Amino acid sequence: MSDIRSKFLEVYSVLKSELLNDPAFEFSHDSRQWVERMLDYNVPGGKLNRGLSVIDSYKLLKEGKELTNDEVFLACVLGWCIEWLQAYFLVLDDIMDNSVTRRDQPCWFRQPKVGMIAVNDGLILRNHIPRILKKHFREKPYYVDLLDLFNEVEFQTTSGQMIDLITTLVGEKDRSKYSLTLHRRIVQYKTAYYSFYLPVACALLMAGEILEDHIIVKDILVEMGTYFQVQDDYLDCFGDPEVIGKIGTDIEDFKCSWLVVKALERCNEEQKKLLYENYGKADQARVEKVKELYKVLDLQGVFVEYEKETYERLLNSIETHPSKAVQAALKSFLSKIYKRQK
């Protein structure tokens, strides 16, 4: 895997060089320097799980056949398109949330001399994706399908972000709206499609498959993405900040998290009153009261049971799929997130 990772990072350098010399725009020295710094700061700094999953999934779909250099390169390119998409979402998301740090460093918009120029940088990141696809996939029979896929997933993700933002509007904090249905909708659209379905869908297209023939695969991956976000919500409250790399703020931020939805289901009237009084307040003492209530309601135990049931259900769904190669790709994805600690 370390070989694949190093190959993947090499491909980033190739793509960056191509974009910094794109003939559609006449770069000055300053503009080229700006874009290079912006790319290096925002694109390759994460765990790269989404991008690497394209290569992993494609290898499994090829059922052990040795990949050609060209196949590895193209799988890496598609992986980087997803990482570019992720960078675009995060740059703008941090501005909307007025966040301070991202990946253990200041958010891009908080960098000296960047500020709201970051909005345009986000748009540049988004516009790089079709430039990359055009250069490397224009002659492929699945080129239009790739464009459709990225456009559809971007629409779903930005729509999910919209639901999340309007649910937590300042001054309109209405906890009665919070339900598992709302939580699932936010998660499905904001996270599951681009983080789970998109990498496998890219691999399926490269392997010559038609996505309409794999609706069951999409459903399984969206369910997996929902499970992943529930884990995230759990770790935001109960995870070790040293391990997960950040201090959770879902309680202060009034997020429609799985934990608060489950708490509302299990609360008596007195506990509900305590939750209403303290949830969504940027005050450490109030945050601790909410966490204490979560412990009293045994949400840790509820999560353990949810994780066990979800894992078994996903595994059963995967094993009913007729293709052993698709099963292997889905099981690989599931194994990466089951019982994760960060």
Automatic annotation (TrEMBL):
GO cellular component terms attached to this protein's record: cytoplasm
Cofactor: Mg(2+)
Keyword Lyase on entry: no
Listed Gene3D superfamilies: Farnesyl Diphosphate Synthase
PROSITE patterns according to UniProt: POLYPRENYL_SYNTHASE_2 (PS00444)
Record keyword Methyltransferase present: no
The organism's place on the tree of life at top rank: Eukaryota
Keywords from the named record: Cholesterol biosynthesis, Cholesterol metabolism, Isoprene biosynthesis, Lipid biosynthesis, Lipid metabolism, Magnesium, Metal-binding, Steroid biosynthesis, Steroid metabolism, Sterol biosynthesis, Sterol metabolism, Transferase
Pfam families: polyprenyl_synt
Gene Ontology terms: biological process: cholesterol biosynthetic process; farnesyl diphosphate biosynthetic process
Molecular functions (GO terms): (2E,6E)-farnesyl diphosphate synthase activity; dimethylallyltranstransferase activity; metal ion binding
Biochemical pathway: Isoprenoid biosynthesis; geranyl diphosphate biosynthesis; geranyl diphosphate from dimethylallyl diphosphate and isopentenyl diphosphate: step 1/1; Isoprenoid biosynthesis; farnesyl diphosphate biosynthesis; farnesyl diphosphate from geranyl diphosphate and isopentenyl diphosphate: step 1/1
Family to which this protein belongs: Belongs to the FPP/GGPP synthase family.
Role, per record: Catalyzes the sequential condensation of isopentenyl pyrophosphate with the allylic pyrophosphates, dimethylallyl pyrophosphate, and then with the resultant geranylpyrophosphate to the ultimate product farnesyl pyrophosphate.
Name the UniProt record assigns to this protein: Farnesyl diphosphate synthase
Organism: Quercus rubra
